[in-house]
Design a protein that fits this description.
The complex is a heterodimer of chains A (about 280) and B (about 425).
Chain A (H helix, E strand, L loop, with lengths): L1 H19 L6 H19 L2 H22 L10 H24 L15 E5 L2 E4 H23 L1 H11 L1 H6 L4 H23 L9 H16 L4 H21 L7 H12 L14
Antiparallel strand pairs in A: 1-2
Chain B lengths: L5 H17 L3 H5 L7 E7 L6 H20 L8 E7 L4 H13 L5 E4 L3 H13 L3 E4 L15 E3 L4 H14 L5 E7 L2 H17 L2 E8 L10 H6 L4 E5 L2 H14 L1 H4 L1 E4 L4 H7 L8 E4 L10 H14 L5 H20 L4 H8 L3 E2 L6 E3 L6 E2 L2 E6 L12 E7 L1 H4 L3 H4 L12
Parallel strand pairs in B: 1-2, 1-3, 3-4, 4-5, 6-7, 6-8, 8-9, 9-10
Antiparallel strand pairs in B: 10-14, 11-12, 12-13, 14-15
Helix pairs in contact in B: 3-12, 3-13, 4-5, 6-7, 9-11, 13-14
The chains are: A mainly alpha (about 280), B alpha/beta (about 425).
């Protein structure tokens, strides 16, 4: 499960960094907001399946508001990167408190949909449940779609070009501002989707975005900033490192992801799939 | 123009005097007018991940102070709380605690939900000779780690673990034990307690499966737990980790292979997990709201908390109430706010607030109290939205507490004479 969630959340983080050069500390809150939006949808309609659509849509819209209302103001300013860190860090502190004030008591119950409960088959010592298979399948289905979006559409072309050389794309007369907004919203929606599908297995709480963000930063560093394949490889590597250490030598589980990051950076300082010049200023 | 005669005014004044004398305004009548209020400094994390727990504890503090004031205050003086936000940061907790003592002249310092806040507050209280009492677990009861002014009405980690272990033993749930826990200092204290009690009762302690703090996916750790082939699995996790763990242990079906005992839980965790997630799990608690049916004082407290917060009080809020009330009623009894005098009066003090009889053991300031082992209910069996558990057994605090010798203290002398 961890690998899938990390890939979905880290993809948005990586693309936003690659295109906009912003180290987006607010990204974890979109994951958390996705879980809350999902809870709200289920609370109002009783449908988990509807939540899979409404939560990413709603959080994507919040992403648009954040990008247009806040981040836009710091583009092109002196020390924009540093300002981006400060602003997004501020949002990451403020929004969980707003959620606490809005939703009140700690945590929201979020059950696995009835149709996906129960064991499907046994894999070694573990009963593999329907919901775990669902997470795996839905991530596996989303990744090719995202790859197609990034590699076979005009929007994807602009995003990839912008990730490689942002100034050149602007000089070509392309409306980069609009692309930035769409990219930021897409990243937020992806994180929100990850939030909804994780929610039945974890505690839905305002703090849930904090830790996932740290792990996603590691995934993007390991995989290479701004690269699709890098995030997928990094997510799988970190997710599996966490899972295997838990199974084989649990006392190392605390540090294994940092060890993996150190090891990869020693061998390939730009990450597994990072390229020279990408996202460098 | 109306005319009021002198006789009418005298009658009115006399009537007002009689009314005041017999009226329901005990504060006005019984609290010393003009005397400065007794201040209780409260430091809790009003912002951050424990903000809602902090609000619950502030409500419990308010109820305790209202009770004391209704009974005449402390030495006839009104009691006031001065509340500060620790922001869930040790350095802020330390700064705010210092401010409460130096600027606000607080007579007592209470608060702290988690360990690092407690350590910070204890440092300030001990340095300034002010009594400090924790709302969270009383985890510093080891020689060399505490000063003579430290107290805490909540359970110690040892009590919590030993109570669960004795419960398992008395209920004959099996003699092969294992623990799944987050890997940091607080659960590590439980490991020591479980292994010690296992040795005492002849159980086979198979060790611990450690998961990092903040684990989202416990599934990779569960095969190791299952491989231990334990009859009983103790789970020592907290907050979001416990909720995720409970959901995934239920998904894994561990309760079909072994008895699952959460060393300690809070009502808020069961709420966050959702109805039925704690079904068939046993959980330790310092207090559970079903006690309102057994103790009239617990019923009164329950009703007031529900009126104030629109939700049932948890075990930790009940401990908070008791912490504040005990300090104030002790000070009132000895008619002093002097730290040494109140400390000596607290040592060995027996009291009964919201549950069975309790006692502050003199040699280590541990509150010897019953620990409640509760069983999680199925969603369909819940009578209301807070009815997650049934109390199965109250484990006696005497049998669940570590000896003073075990903590490095002399059992025959009060702590204040040892440090």
């Amino acid at each position: 499960m961890n690998g899938c969630i990390l890939i979905l959340v880290a993809l948005g983080l990586s693309i936003v960094f690659g295109l906009m050069g912003i180290i987006n500390f607010a990204h974890g809150i979109f994951y958390m907001l996705g879980a809350y939006a999902g809870w709200l949808t289920i609370h109002l309609t009783g449908s988990f399946w509807l939540a899979l659509v409404t939560a990413p849509a709603a959080v994507g819209l919040i992403g648009v508001l954040v990008e247009r209302g806040v981040l836009k103001r710091i583009y092109g300013t002196k020390n924009a990167n540093f300002a981006g860190v400060l602003v997004t860090y501020g949002l990451a502190i403020m929004i969980p408190d707003l959620v606490r004030m809005t939703f009140g008591r700690p945590g929201k119950p979020f059950a696995v949909p009835e149709v996906l409960t129960g064991s499907l088959f046994r894999l070694g010592a573990i009963d593999v449940h329907g919901y775990r298979v669902f997470i795996l399948l839905v991530t596996a289905a989303l990744l090719p779609l995202l790859w197609l979006l990034l590699n076979r559409t005009n929007l994807g072309l602009v995003i990839r070009a912008g990730t490689s050389d942002n100034v050149m794309v602007q000089l070509l007369g392309i409306n980069v501002a609009q692309t930035w907004t769409i990219t930021y919203a897409l990243g937020a929606a992806l994180a929100a989707f990850a939030g909804v599908i994780t929610a039945p297995l974890v505690a839905v709480s305002p703090e849930m975005g904090g830790l996932v963000l740290i792990e996603c930063f590691i995934v993007t560093v390991v995989g290479g900033m701004g690269t699709f394949l890098g995030v997928v490889a990094g997510g799988l590597l970190i997710g599996e490192a966490l899972a295997l250490t838990g199974m084989l030598y649990d006392v190392l589980a605390d540090v294994v992801i940092y060890l993996a990051m150190a090891l990869v950076l020693l061998v390939r300082p730009r990450g597994l799939f990072g390229q020279e010049g990408m996202s460098e200023e | 123009m109306s005319h009021i005669s002198r006789r009418t005014i005298l009658k009115a004044l006399a009537g007002a005097g009689v009314t005041t004398a017999v009226s329901g305004f005990p504060f006005v009548n019984r609290l010393a007018l003009g005397a400065p209020a007794v201040k209780v400094g409260v430091v809790v994390p009003m912002t951050g991940p424990m903000a809602l727990e902090a609000q619950e504890m502030l409500a419990a503090t308010q109820i305790a102070v209202e009770d004391i004031n209704a009974a005449g205050g402390v030495m006839g003086r009104k009691v006031e709380t001065v509340i500060r936000d620790s922001e869930f940061k040790p350095e802020v907790a330390k700064r705010k605690a210092t401010e409460l003592i130096e600027v606000e002249k607080a007579a007592f310092l209470v608060g702290a939900i988690v360990g690092f806040e407690g350590i910070a507050m204890a440092e300030v209280g001990c340095k300034n000779d002010v009594i400090v009492s924790f709302f969270g677990q009383n985890f510093l009861t080891v020689k060399g780690k505490m000063c003579k002014y430290q107290f805490g009405n909540n359970l110690t980690p040892y009590q919590t673990a030993a109570a669960a272990a004795h419960f398992v033993n008395e209920q004959k749930m099996g003699k092969r034990w294992h623990m799944l826990a987050n890997n940091y200092s607080w659960p590590q204290m439980f490991e020591r307690a479980y292994s010690l009690v296992a040795k005492q009762v002849g159980a086979d302690w198979t060790g611990v499966t450690w998961a990092p703090l903040g684990t989202r996916d416990f599934l990779p750790f569960l095969p190791k737990v299952a491989a231990a082939k334990a009859d009983v699995v103790f789970i020592t996790t907290w907050a979001a980790d416990q909720v995720a763990c409970a959901k995934q242990v239920q998904e894994f079906g561990l309760a079909k292979q072994a008895r699952v005992i959460h060393s300690i839980t809070e009502l808020t965790f069961a709420e966050a997990a959702g109805a039925g997630v704690y079904e068939n799990f046993y959980s330790g608690m310092p207090w559970y709201w079903h006690l309102k049916d057994k103790f009239p004082a617990a019923k009164r407290y329950y009703d007031r908390h529900v009126a104030l917060r629109k939700r049932a009080p948890s075990g930790y809020t009940a401990s908070t109430y008791s912490t504040v009330r005990l300090l104030l009623e002790t000070a009132n009894e000895v008619k002093s706010l002097e730290t040494d005098k109140v400390t000596r009066a607290l040592e060995g003090r027996k009291f009964q607030h919201l549950k069975g009889p309790e006692r502050i053991r003199a040699c280590d300031h541990v509150n010897i109290q019953d620990v409640y082992l509760c069983k999680g209910k199925a969603a369909g069996a819940m009578k209301d939205s807070w009815d997650f558990f049934d109390i199965v057994q109250a484990v006696s605090g005497e049998s669940a507490s570590e000896s003073c010798e075990g903590e490095g203290f002399d059992p025959k002398r009060p702590l204040s004479q040892q440090i």
